[in-house]
Design goal:
The chain contains ten helices and nine strands. It has helices at residues 9-21, 37-49, 77-86, 97-100, 117-120, 123-127, 131-146, 158-170, 200-221, 227-237, and strands at 4-6, 26-31, 52-57, 91-93, 150-154, 176-180, 243-251, 265-273, 276-284. It folds into two domains: 4-180, Rossmann fold, CATH 3.40.50; 193-278, Pantoate-beta-alanine ligase, C-terminal domain (Pantoate--beta-alanine Ligase, Chain: A,domain 2, 2-Layer Sandwich). The strands form two sheets. It has a six-stranded parallel β-sheet, sandwiched between helices. The protein has a three-stranded antiparallel β-sheet with strand order 7-8-9. Bound molecules: pantoate.
Length: 286
């Protein structure tokens, strides 16, 4: 089957209804486009587990905070089609803002899905207030529109993945969430659509983010378990031009802060390099 691009919700529902009638399973990969190899691995995973692979390409305005890069976020649908086709995608759902939010000018009128405060007042949610409300709202809408059997999410956005798994449990979406490993450049830099904003010099500086995380893992393996000490190991490996927003250690199952690593722990960071906000994480297995 060749790739089709669908812009309207009603049309997509009709196409998917027909596939479901034929007994076909559907996997969804929600994206904001500007697809890179990290997305490609999600699409390939989706293609390997379901009969039909749908991706959404939608830069979701309600997950951007005031002053963030919503307007300049790269929109590259033609290039995205090429990547999606090479990964075996059947349908790109690329709605307009008006199709998804017909009354966006009356934002206060929108029904939102809001995750628990204690899980969003940490890490990315702390500086990006309301971000995860926007993410959970659009992902719920996409789940209701596409009605997939599976949905694939990358582990790079580890807090997003945790919150979506919880939302699916709490709201009883009949969907299996499939976590997919973070993909790195050979240099160690985590792939991100925002890497496009980095100059070659800034990219060099950004390499110290993964370097810091790998140094933390090595230090843990060498016997350091206290996260205060591991935090210092991370700091000493960060380039002085990196503006660190957070470097946190949280329990893999609860996302509560960890003082000493005794079970699987996520070590995650966010930082700005030349004004570009980047995130990265490692899972420290015990
Ligand atoms: O991870 C992203 O790209 C976005 O947050 C998502 C899940 C597509 C929702 O807009």
């Amino acid at each position: 089957m060749s790739l089709v691009v669908i812009n309207e919700i009603a049309k997509l529902r009709e196409v998917i209804k027909n596939y479901k009638k034929e007994g076909k399973t559907v996997a969804l990969v929600p994206t904001m486009g500007c697809l890179h190899d990290g997305h490609k691995s999600l699409m390939q995973k989706a293609h390997s587990i379901a009969d039909i692979t749908v991706i959404s390409v939608f830069v979701n305005p309600i997950q951007f905070c005031p002053g963030e890069d919503y307007d300049k976020y790269p929109r590259t649908l033609d290039a995205d089609k090429v990547v999606a086709e090479s990964a075996g995608v059947d349908i790109i759902f690329a709605p307009s803002v008006n199709e998804m939010y017909p009354n966006l000018n009356k934002f206060s009128d929108l029904t939102m899905v809001v995750p628990p405060y204690e899980l969003t007042d940490i890490m990315c949610g702390k500086s990006r207030v309301g971000h995860f409300d926007g993410v959970e709202t659009v992902v719920s809408k996409l789940f209701n529109i596409v009605q997939p059997d599976f949905a694939c999410f990358g582990m790079k956005d580890i807090q997003q993945l945790f919150l979506i798994k919880k939302m699916v449990r709490d709201l009883n979406f009949p969907i299996e969430i499939v976590p997919c490993p973070l993909v790195r450049e050979e240099s160690g830099l985590a792939l991100s659509s925002r890497n496009k904003y980095l100059s070659p010099e800034q990219k060099e500086i950004a390499l110290s983010l993964s370097k810091a995380l790998f140094a933390i893992r090595d230090a843990y393996k060498a016997g350091i378990k206290e996260t205060k000490k591991l935090f210092d190991v991370g700091l000493t490996n960060l380039d002085k031009n990196v503006e660190l927003e957070y470097l946190e250690f949280v329990d893999n199952d609860t996302f509560k802060p960890v003082e000493s690593i005794t079970k699987t722990t996520i070590c995650a960071l966010a930082a700005r390099v030349g004004g570009v906000r980047l995130i990265d994480n490692i899972v420290v297995e015990v």
